[in-house]
Amino acid sequence: MSSVLDQYNALSTPAPRDQASATFSAILVAIMANQVDAGSRKSLAQLILDDLRATLLDNTISRLSKDDTPQAFSTLKTLGGIPEVASTLGTPSNLRCLLKLSAKIDNSRQNDALRCIANTVLLNESARVTFVGSVVDGGSACINLLQKSSTEHVFLASRILFLCTAAASSAGPFIQWLVEHKRPNAPGSGTAIDIIGAKLDDLVELMKEGNLVAREATTDLLKLIFNLCVHYPKLVDCEVQSPEVANSDSEKVMGDYWSARLDRGVCSLSNCVLSDINHLSLLPPLNRAFHVSPHSSNPLETPLPHIIHSLITIPVLPTNRNVWFGKQPSVHSPDSASSSSISSMGGGFKETKSRLLDRASSVLSAGRRSLSRSSGSRPPTPMLQDSALRAYELLDATLAYFMPGDINSDDPSIRSRLPDGETFDDLVSPLVILLTRFCLGDEDCQGQDKELVSSCQSGSIQPFGNTARSSGQMPAPLAECVPQSVE
Questions:
Q1: What is the CA radius of gyration of the chain?
Q2: What's the predicted TM-score (pTM) here?
């Protein structure tokens, strides 16, 4: 086979379409057969990109016609699948060219120019800094894509932004710009944070309909949100979350510090209404996504683990209690309807480990619903959902799914149910951490957690606020998973 580099160089300007098509096919065959060395791949990538620029941007002499460009983009994407080519495509001029070319591709079609950028910033770390820098200004372009584009383009923009914010050491200025820079026509406080939150809501609605691309886009957008929530508080002066941390000189740790810039406009307990809550930036859309039921039998189906990862970075405070748990009084408040509802489910009975927690969660749900009923004649105000209750239900469903019946926690069948490369601890621990943070941050939630654990230990369900603790043993999986701090 003759050199595909020579074959491409020999194309006339412009080349007949069948010749260009045959050449691109030959390049792909040679790559798959590992017959193109890294140096030739770099040269081919630069030649093809220069011809795409000439055809689509500059309208100058090129080997390619506009009809050849889809195949050219596909070939360029394949050539860029190694770090050596990524270093070539990762220069300021080439990244700027790819970004301009991406705007020439119809919104309804696969955008291989954006895919080239995504591959480049994946394989070349320095390209991430270059792409979001002032010369290329790719970060602003990707935020615009989040706000205005199709799901396919949103997926690629989310992946690029997630990769470009992966390391606080190199991405610090860009992360601060995303959180602090005011943008025209942005909702809420007017920053990229509000655009990201609004887009998460949009994607979750599409995901409910079974849109697989929306699920992929949601996963990468959640990774971006996690990066911002973890890194931004480490870059700026922010709020310490406990006295112990305030007296420590150690490095900032996730969850110990928080900045209100990541969740602006949190309303007070006394005047919070649904319209206010819907305009907050990150916590409300994350919370709404947390309550979406999975499409498979696995309760922790992707992207739910990524939602949990982001939620555990956000503090549980009196000012955002309504967002976490809904606007409702303490479950320990006296209420005749609540007492009647709860008492009717009391009594001593023994069940499986899964059903115990399920029944306890049902009691909690019934009590909260009764307490939230309006005593007047007007219809009740719509409630936000209770994330503590949702977390309990997820833990129950997860234990029942991965450890049905009375199997040992080391049984090989558990591993067969896990996603590839995942351990049970890795999958479930963030959910337990979230429950722990609820208990540490909210006194009512801590009391409910103690009562649920007490019910599981004793093998019986008693009215909340009046649960007698016993010396009974908690089922083994719950003993391993329920945080010790609740005791």
A1: 27
A2: 0.79
